[in-house]
Each structure stands twice: as structure tokens, then as C-alpha cells.
């Protein structure tokens, strides 16, 4: 396999758009990616993300092969908040989320103790309108947030609360990959998750994590969490009203708080989303595109869309939270 420095790739940089590489492979996409693997990964390390256009990825097997050429080991998803379709080991559909609702900026699985360092997306079918997977630099977002707010999140961390049911989001059996309650309890104990079984086979969990981490390679401080995305105030107002009426304030399928349990106000969530928007880079999908994202350095989102949209996802390069200088101790009661 040939090895090239990232500087030899003609990466386009334009304000408001992700770094882009336009290619015209001689032969099939898999061979081209295998030949340029090192240069592509170096470009992601340099820029935080990279949109590769012109590969012509057209089906799930081909996209899966490209993913495996780029990463040694694909990760299995753990603790998902919504279902995905599994195409092959480590190859998934996008999260099943209402197409008319925004999935705001977040870092994949930032509430777990081991999360992907690299996210890979392949667009097989581009939507008629919208649906971009946008990106935002986590270090720039952190620098733009009020210092007092950052200090509080560094001191307290953030808390994810989940109430599993069979109606909204992933069930606990889907999230933990088992329908055996004892296996779920063992996982929770091993991964610093507080849990409480509810009536009718329900489950509620709480897990405290660091909101700010250091990149495991560069050491740069990054805003790394899903505080805004999984918070009640990011929901559409009508959806929020329905959820509260249906499940109560403490029974929402998911919500976020400060690590000490204090509620996060609507004003703070609005501020976080405004800062994200100021640092968002977006480019409409084209069929065949490949997007690579450093999951610690770069947040990503999914914008509302119309028409069919098929984007495959793979996660790789597992990173331990313990290797990212967490600012709060991870423990379960």
C-alpha cells in the first residue's frame, strides 16, 4: 500500500463548508481508498473531517468494504438512543430519527466509556432537499463558550438520564444488546451507570461524564458531549409538550443535566446551539460521497430533509474516556 502525506491531497477549504477532496479514481473505489488510506487518515487528523467526492459508492457491501479498508477494526454500537439497521458487522444505517426534525451537533457515543475516534459516513442516496451531515470544530466551540459556563461543566460534568420504553427510541434490550436483566445490570456496573428497574419492565439509568476532554493524540481541549442534542429543550416544542404530558418531567426517554443533577436551563441549551451554528460547516450530500470525521475533535449533526435518504455509518478507532484527561471521576452508586 502506498503512503502519502496529507499535503499531497488537494483538499479544498472554503468558509462554511467542510474540507473537501474531489477524486476521479482509476478503477474501483475500494482500490483507490486502499492506496490512499494513509493520506486520507492524515487529512482527517489535520483538518478534523474530510468529505471525499467522486468515489461513486453505490451499495452497502461496497461501502462496507471501503470502511474496512480505512479502519482496522469496526466497532459495534453500544447504548444507542434510537434504532439503526445493521447491514453487516460494524456497518449501520443512520439513526432512525424523524426526517423533519434536526439532530443537532453531538459527538457519537460521548456518554460511553469507550467511544469511536473515527466516524465514517457513505451516502448511497442523497435526499431531494436538506439532510446534510454538518460538522463543527469542537475546540473552536469550546473557545467560543463563556468561560464561567465551561468551568462549571468542567467541575460538574454532565449527566445523561434515560427512561427506556418500547414506544420511543431504543428499548433497553436494543440499547444493551440483551433481553436478560442480569446482563444489563452487569454492563451498568462495569460502565459506571446507575440503574433502577421500573414497573412494566421499564428501566431508568443515569450516567455522569466529562463535558470537556483532551484529544488523545494532540492533547487539545475539546467540547465533547451530547448535552444539547439529548436535552429536552432541543426538542420541537410540540414534541416536548407531548413527551412531558405522556411520561412526566422525570420520565422523558432521555434528558441531560449538569453532573450534580441540576437542570440545564433552556437559555443554556439555546446558547450551546447558537455557538454550534456559528461554527457549522455544511455541504449537501451527493450520492457516492464519503465523509470521515474525527469524533473527538469534530461534532456532527443531521439536518432535516425531504425525500429518500440513505447514509451508511461505521465507527472505528475506539478511544477510552480515561485516555482523554476526563475532568470528573466516573463512578456508579
TrEMBL record:
Keyword Coiled coil: no
All residue ranges annotated as the TauD/TfdA-like domain in the record: 28-315
Cofactor: Fe(2+)
A single MF term (Gene Ontology): dioxygenase activity
Region called Disordered, residue ranges: 1-26
Swiss-Prot/TrEMBL keywords: Antibiotic biosynthesis, Dioxygenase, Iron, Oxidoreductase
InterPro entries associated with the record: AlphaKG_dependent_hydroxylases (IPR050411), TauD-like_sf (IPR042098), TauD/TfdA-like (IPR003819)
UniProt protein name: TauD/TfdA family dioxygenase
Species the sequence originates in: Streptomyces olivaceiscleroticus
Organismal lineage: Bacteria, Bacillati, Actinomycetota, Actinomycetes, Kitasatosporales
